[in-house]
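Treating backbone geometry as a discrete language has practical consequences that deserve illustration. No coordinates are needed to read the tokens, only the vocabulary itself. For completeness, the protein is quoted in full, as a sequence line and a line of structure tokens:
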Amino acid sequence: MSRLYVARNPRVAARCLDGEMMIMSGRDSTLFTLNKTATILWQAADGATPLDEIVEHLICPEFEVEPTEALQDAENLARELASHEVLQISDQPIPQRVPGGQTPTAGESR
């Protein structure tokens, strides 16, 4: 099984309210309210960290859940959010864009 990488779509509006993310899709203006688990996934979705590591290091310790089950649930969630263009998913790291559409070069922050 290949690793899955997730990144936030830069074309969505997001705001954290009381520990839950509110996300507006740029594609169709659909509003998503993410629960605590999905919020952790969203906040960690940097395009460089594999989904299995996000689950292992952030989700499992927080919720004391079985890693295999948590990973399957996280993959399903990531694919669902990607179908609404809220997240981007790939089997390779996803380069993040900086304003102006450029990919950061060495020494630049994301």
Remarks:
- Residues 101-110 have pLDDT under 50 and may be disordered.
- The chain has one domain: 5-89.
